[in-house]
Amino acid sequence: xxxxxxxxxxxxxxxxxxxxxxxxxxxxxxxxxxxxxxxxxxxxxxxxxxxxxxxxxxxxxxxxxxxxxxxxxxxxxxxxxxxxxxxxxxxxxxxxxxxxxxxxxxxxxxxxxxxxxxxxxxxxxxxxxxxxxxxxxxxxxxxxxxxxxxxxxxxxxxxxxxxxxxxxxxxxxxxxxxxxxxxxxxxxxxxxxxxxxxxxxxxxxxxxxxxxxxxxxxxxxxxxxxxxxxxxxxxxxxxxxxxxxxxxxxxxxxxxxxxxxxxxxxxxxxxxxxxxxxxxxxxxxxxxxxxxxxxxxxxxxxxxxxxxxxxxxxxxxxxxxxxxxxxxxxxxxxxxxxxxxxxxxxxxxxxx
Length: 352
Ligand code: TXA
Ligand code: MG
Fold this sequence. Notes:
- This protein has about 350 residues and is of the alpha/beta class.
- It is about 30% helix and about 20% strand.
- The protein is built from twelve helices and 16 strands.
- It has helices spanning about 15-25, 45-55, 75-80, 85-95, 125-135, 155-165, 200-210, 250-260, 270-275, 295-305, 325-335, 345-350; strands at about 5, 30-35, 40-45, 65-70, 80, 100-105, 120, 140, 170, 185, 190-195, 210-215, 245, 265-270, 285-290, 315-320.
- Strands 1, 2, 3, 4, 5, 6, 7, 8, 9, 10, 11 and 12 form a twelve-stranded mixed sheet that branches. The protein has a four-stranded parallel sheet with strand order 13-16-14-15.
- β14 (about 265-270), α9 and β15 form a beta-alpha-beta unit.
- The longest helix has 14 residues, at about 295-305.
- Bound molecules: threonylcarbamoyladenylate (TXA) and magnesium ion.
- Magnesium ion (MG) binds next to loops.
- Magnesium ion binds next to loops.
């Protein structure tokens, strides 16, 4: 069993951070909270320690890790060719939930980079993550702390569920604030390219970074013969064992409730929709109010994880507008369901 260390998320106890840092510096793995989701961290310059991350997660070796830093000065230790404009922008955007793919300077081992000549970097806005990186005095490579393919962990309980016995230490710093991963931007070309919508909204990032290209492929599954812009887009993701079907309109979910569909379904939906259909659907998981999509984001992965304990045939998930944080929410819902949302009741019935 892996030891779980409870750490104050606002004012981390220095002696506990020192213990966790010791594990990292000895080549071990530590799960820790960030403002987005929990990560599994190892010394980003230690190839064999980072190999331990891939092993713990069962992660394909071609899917690179994000390197986490605690001060802007560490950028030059891992990346090359960063222009003045980006240097200025990160002063405002970091610490925060945005990762930049940059040209690697070769210092971060190839396995961390999934064999690429680029490296993804971010400075997390969480006191535990920042203190830990600072105490280690080295960048920390950290993917989300879940078994590969599963929804990311937003609580220490999720981490224990997936990784107990597979990592050397788990820091419990409470629930994560956003509940969705960082936005990933490819900054090696101009205009920049969005590789993964995330907690930092595109609209907000464009105010600081100018135009950002949004490839249409980021909101759908990548075909087997298609080239993925980011390796992570190719792999199965965010999926509970229960089949998930996204439904694009509330009306379709209501009609489905009225007709009865003859299967045991769970519905993941807004509080408002839940109220309308509550009497007809026995299993409803409320994601949050439609006017507060950050709450929906925060509850999404926990709700997907809950499905597997519910003994249902499949789950229907309501779609949300693809604006603001809604873009990241929809990206995760589409990836969890593995196909485009059902538009009509007939289509939904076929997909179930
Ligand atoms: O919020 C987050 O980003 C969390 C916390 C722990 O910081 N981390 C996280 O890491 O979500 P991970 O490994 O689950 O997702 C990293 C994503 C993957 O889709 C990966 O393919 C992409 O970033 N990525 C990493 N390095 C890349 C690179 N050099 N080029 C293109 N994509 C890259
Ligand atoms: Mg992940």
